[in-house]
Write a structure and sequence with these properties.
D-amino Acid Aminotransferase, Chain A, domain 1; 657 residues; 5 domains; single chain; 7-stranded antiparallel beta sheet; 22% strand; OB fold (Dihydrolipoamide Acetyltransferase, E2P); alpha+beta
């Protein structure tokens, strides 16, 4: 293959990878592979003196997607040149002072303030044109709605979701394949929602990293003074250290040591000259500014032997390949497994049992295969599902090949589907663990959801099962009877429609006024126009209800249920029109969902962040200096303890859930 042909191949590969990552929130190759191919293309362009049209080295990202309005940035947002060499980073600084800070891994956002008020928020987009997300930025956890400076202020920062919040959200999603892959993907989708209620519930934070303009303010040519000024205006600023080239190695070491305890996702560091005028005097290349540089962690790579590929089925039929290898120490922990994600990546790596492979932790966290040193390619793709033994099928979507079990009666699908169905946010049926469901499915007691409500027909067999008896059986019957009285959003969520969580189920029910028949008849185009739903989710819903078997299961299930309108709670609607935020630990209610339910039963709405539309904040530590308390005080929002809230608004309710 000649050099130009290879350049065309690399350009195509990298463009597809970038599009998947930036526009579709998915990955078709690892970060390590992307960097390796990018560096190869850069080297070829230098050798040939040719830069092909569409080359990622000549472009900045991709065009923004079409769901949100677009706007051109006042000044272009260039990418940063990068290095993995600490020595090169030190050379960049030399005798000059630089500010070294985290390179946060989220979505870059530009905020504009006029007369002290936030008037505009725009995503980075392709560096020239971004998406307008002003309403969403207003519900970020820590973005000031007002600042002291009354002149025009424009600044850039990173919107991120903390690891702790990311893990909590994933823990609330029973089905593994529906969970988010990483905080960046979750943040990207959250920031670009059409419905900012969804954004508010995701706990998005904003960390400023660059001041574009602040009319009339003198910073004495100091980048650090800009950072300190932004803090004075109420912004959280990225953590930074000021060093010269001599201090760069120690600073890098300190940041690396802090990664394990850092709740903010990052993929490296950024260095920018403290002397603003000096940095500007260096100018820019076609792609990079010369006043700053990014440092990416040099991944700790270990060589090991691939011993097995496990195939893990899910309730949707997707069968994920998982590489199992001889254990190695990486970043202080022992690892022996890594997800390969899909068949396309497995084939690209040419994996085979006994191959010598190198593994690393992406961003020092997620185990990944870096390279296959032997590339035997002898790994077999199973023609039969490892659970049911029926035929598998390779399906290609958006140029990515994945393996599926196509047997609708596969036990793996059923177990995962029933596990979701009985979960707390769905039908909330106690006493049916995944192990118990597996026994019942294996015994033929349940084949569809409605069968759960006829388990009394199998009483004699169940009470003889290990772990069961008369009392356990009766507890299960009581739990099943309680679950019959439910709400439509819970029913829709319990069906396991791909991409539909409880929040989206509520959106659908509100849009159609609780008319399940209308939801079932709606086509993908109609559904996609609903704020907060969009094309992908709309297609999932339409496809689900287009299936005859799905409708038969649902019809049988509806015969067993008493679906209540959520508004028919029997409680006075004394919270109608109120937006309420809950924060901190609770003393009287079991958890936030219980308090949220009590509020919604009285017509109130629970949101995730304090904004100008917030009616009150519930926090047992009313005098704390938390960000939500500060924002509430800034906006004049009343702060009530849980007890005071109950005394004022829930005095006729039971005080404990």
């Amino acid at each position: 293959m000649d050099r130009l042909e290879r350049m065309r191949e690399l350009t195509d590969l990298l463009r597809k990878a970038s599009k998947a990552y930036y526009q579709e929130d998915r990955e078709i190759m690892s970060n390590l592979d992307y960097d390796r191919l990018y560096d190869e293309l850069t080297a070829l362009e230098k050798e040939t003196g040719v830069v092909l049209a569409g080359s990622p080295t000549a472009e900045v990202g991709y065009e923004a997607v079409d769901e949100l309005p677009k706007e051109r940035h006042e000044t272009p947002m260039l990418s940063l040149d990068k290095t993995k060499d600490v020595g090169a980073l030190a050379d960049f600084a030399g005798e000059h002072e630089v500010l070294m800070s985290w390179k946060l891994d989220g979505l870059t956002v530009v905020l504009t303030y006029e007369q002290g008020k936030l008037i505009k928020a725009v995503t980075r987009g392709n560096g020239e044109i971004g998406e307008v997300i002003t309403n969403n930025a207003r519900v970020f956890c820590n973005v000031p709605l007002s600042i002291p400076c009354l002149s025009t202020v424009v600044l850039r920062g990173e919107a991120v979701i903390r690891y702790s919040d990311f893990e909590k959200m994933n823990a609330s999603i029973p089905e593994e394949e529906a969970r988010y892959k990483n905080p960046r993907n979750l943040c990207s989708g959250s920031v670009r929602q059409l419905n900012n209620e969804v954004t508010a519930a995701r706990n998005v934070y904003f960390y400023a990293f660059a001041l574009v303009r602040a009319d009339g303010v003198d910073f004495a040519n100091s980048r650090e003074r800009q950072f300190l000024w932004m803090k004075e205006q109420g912004f959280d600023v990225v953590e930074y250290r000021k060093v010269t080239g001599e201090g760069v190695p120690q600073a890098v070491e300190a940041f690396a040591a802090a990664i394990e305890d850092n709740d903010l996702p990052s993929d490296g560091l950024v260095c920018v000259y403290e002397d603003i005028a000096y940095g500007r005097s260096l100018g820019r290349t076609a792609k990079f500014p010369r006043d700053s540089i990014a440092f990416k962690w040099k991944d700790e790579v270990r060589e090991t032997t691939l011993t097995q590929i496990e195939w893990s089925p899910s309730r949707t039929g997707l069968i994920n390949p998982i590489a199992v290898f001889e254990p190695v120490e990486l970043e202080g922990t022992t690892v022996s497994r890594a997800s390969v994600h899909n068949l396309s990546i497995m084939k690209a790596l040419k994996l085979g049992i006994g191959d010598r492979i190198t593994v690393y932790k992406a961003n020092m966290i997620i185990p990944q295969i870096a390279e296959n040193l032997t590339g035997s390619g002898n790994a077999e793709i199973p023609s039969a599902c490892p659970v049911c033994g029926q035929a598998t099928q390779i399906q290609k979507v958006n140029d990515v090949e994945s393996l599926y079990c196509i047997n609708p009666d596969c036990q793996a699908k059923k177990i995962k589907a029933f596990t979701l169905f009985v979960s707390r946010d769905a039908m909330n049926i106690d006493g049916l663990s995944e192990m118990t469901l597996e026994k019942f499915i294996g015994a033929g007691f349940i084949r569809e959801y409605a069968d759960l409500y006829h388990l009394d027909r199998h009483r004699d067999e169940i009470v003889e099962m290990e772990g069961f008896g008369e009392k356990s059986f009766q507890n299960l019957m009581d739990s099943l009877d309680r679950s019959r009285r439910t709400t439509l959003p819970r029913v829709i969520y319990s069906l396991g429609i791909p991409n539909i969580g409880l929040a989206n189920a509520k959106v659908l029910c509100r849009e159609y006024g609780g008319d399940l028949s209308a939801i079932r008849k709606a086509d993908a185009e109609e559904l996609s126009r609903i704020a907060g739903i969009g094309g992908v989710i709309g297609a999932s819903v339409a496809d689900y209800f287009a299936d005859h078997e799905h409708n038969r299961w649902l019809d049988d299930l509806l015969k067993e249920l008493d679906i209540q309108k959520e508004a028919d709670s029997g409680q006075p609607r004394n919270l109608e029109g109120m937006n309420i935020v809950i924060t901190g630990s609770l003393e009287h209610f079991e958890n936030r969902n219980a308090l949220k339910g009590a509020i919604e039963a009285r017509g109130g709405k629970v949101t995730g962040s304090v904004t100008s539309k917030t009616s009150l904040l519930i926090n047992n530590d009313t005098a704390s200096g938390s960000s939500k308390n500060k924002k509430a005080k800034e906006l004049g929002v009343e702060i009530l303890s849980e007890q005071d809230f109950m005394d004022r608004y829930l005095s006729t309710d039971r005080q404990e859930e």
